[in-house]
Design goal:
Layout (H helix, E strand, L loop, with lengths): L4 E8 L3 H12 L5 E3 L13 E2 L9 E2 H14 L3 E3 L3 E5 L5 E5 L3 E10 L3 E3 L5 H5 L5 E2 L2 H4 L7 E5 L3 H11 L4 E5 L9 H8 L4 E4 L2 E7 L6 E6 L5 E5 L2 E4 L3 E3 L30 E3 L11 H21 L4
Parallel strand pairs: 1-2, 1-8, 2-5, 8-19, 10-17, 11-12, 11-17, 12-13
Antiparallel strand pairs: 3-4, 6-7, 7-8, 9-18, 14-15, 15-16
C-alpha cells in the first residue's frame, strides 16, 4: 500500500480567501498544498468586471484577478493542484482528507476556503446572460446600472437590502416576490416600501430573461392570474440566497442551519483545533472579495501560530 502523503498546511478552495491564505502560508515556510475545488478561482471567475477591489484603479476582470492571485501564491512556493476534496476526517490528531474520492492525505493544519454558491432560478436565459446583465450581487455590479431600470428577484433580507442599494443608483427597481408576503425583517420591508422608485410585484415569478447579447427585459407571470408581461430592464439581479459549500464538513464542524461554518469571534478557528475557516464559507454578512482575502490572511496567521505552539513549525 502506498504511503499516505503528509502536508503541513492544506488549503481547501481557491478564491481570494484560499489564495491569500496560500501567499501568507508559503511566505511563512508552511509549504502549503492548495486544492482548487470544483470552481478554480471561485465565484469571481463568473464575474466580469471587478471595480471595488483596492489596488486596481481601472478595474479588473474577475478571472484575470484570480489568475494574478494564483501566480502570487505559486511564486512563493504554494503547490496548487486541481482536485476536489470529497471527504474529511477531523476526529484524530492528524486531519485526514480524501481528494477526488481516491487520494488520501494527512495534514497538520487545514484552512477551509470552499466559498459559497449563489442560488439561481435555473432558467436557460439566466445562465446565458450571466455577466451580461444578470448578476447575483448588487453591491458588486449595481454601479454598472446607474441611471437605468433593473429587476430584482427575492423576498428575504438580502433581496430587500440589495433593492434598497440599487434604488440609490437606478431610476427604477422592480422587485419580484413569489408570494404575497416578504420574509425580510419589518425594518427592511419598510425601507423598500417607502422608496419611491421601488415597485414590488407580489405573487410574481420569472418566466424568462429577455435579450440576445444583453438583458433587455424580464418576462414575468402572475402566479394567481397566470397573466404574463415584460418589464423593460437592463439588469436582472437574483437575490434568493447563497449556499455555503460546506456539505463535506457536516457532523464534524459547527455550522449554522444554512451551513455557514461557525468560527470563534476574532479568529478563524473552528471547533476543531488546527482547522480554520475563511472567506464566504464562514461569512454570510459581507461576502466580498476583499473581506474574503482578509480572512484568508487571518487563517494563515492562525494556522502558523497553531503549528508553532504544537512544535510543528
Amino acid at each position: 500500500m502506498e504511503e499516505m502523503e503528509h502536508v503541513k498546511c492544506l488549503i481547501i478552495g481557491s478564491g481570494p480567501a484560499g489564495y491569500t491564505a496560500a501567499v501568507y502560508a508559503a511566505r511563512a515556510d508552511m509549504k502549503p498544498v492548495l486544492y482548487q475545488g470544483l470552481q478554480p478561482g471561485g465565484q469571481l471567475t463568473i464575474t466580469t468586471d471587478v471595480e471595488n477591489y483596492p489596488g486596481y484603479p481601472d478595474g479588473v476582470k474577475g478571472p484575470d484577478m484570480m489568475i494574478d492571485f494564483q501566480k502570487q501564491a505559486e511564486r512563493f512556493g504554494t503547490d496548487v493542484r486541481y482536485g476536489i476534496v470529497t471527504a474529511v476526517d477531523f476526529s484524530g490528531d492528524k486531519h485526514l482528507v480524501t481528494v477526488d474520492n481516491k487520494k488520501k492525505l494527512s495534514a497538520d493544519s487545514v484552512i477551509i476556503s470552499t466559498g459559497a454558491s449563489a442560488k439561481w432560478l435555473g432558467l436557460e436565459s439566466e445562465q446565458r446572460l450571466n455577466g451580461f446583465g444578470v448578476s447575483a450581487c448588487a453591491v458588486c455590479d449595481g454601479f454598472f446600472y446607474k441611471g437605468q431600470e433593473v429587476v430584482i428577484v427575492g423576498g428575504g433580507d438580502t433581496a430587500a437590502e440589495e433593492a434598497s442599494y440599487l434604488s440609490k443608483l437606478c431610476t427604477k427597481v422592480t422587485m419580484l416576490v413569489r408570494s404575497d408576503t416578504m420574509r425580510a425583517s419589518k425594518a427592511m420591508q419598510h425601507r423598500v416600501m417607502n422608496a419611491a422608485n421601488i415597485e414590488i410585484l407580489w405573487n410574481t415569478e420569472t418566466v424568462e430573461v429577455m435579450g440576445e447579447k444583453a438583458v433587455e427585459g424580464v418576462k414575468v407571470r402572475n402566479r394567481k392570474s397566470g397573466e404574463e408581461h415584460v418589464i423593460p430592464a437592463s439588469g436582472f439581479f437574483v437575490a434568493i440566497g447563497h449556499k455555503p459549500n460546506t456539505d463535506i464538513f457536516k457532523g464534524q464542524l459547527d455550522m449554522d442551519e444554512v451551513g455557514y461554518l461557525k468560527i470563534k469571534p476574532g479568529s478563524t478557528k473552528t471547533n476543531i483545533p488546527g482547522v480554520f475557516a475563511s472567506g464566504d464559507a464562514a461569512d454570510k454578512i459581507y461576502r466580498q472579495a476583499v473581506t474574503a482575502a482578509g480572512t484568508g490572511c487571518m487563517a494563515a496567521l492562525d494556522a502558523e501560530r497553531y503549528l508553532a505552539d504544537k512544535g510543528l513549525h
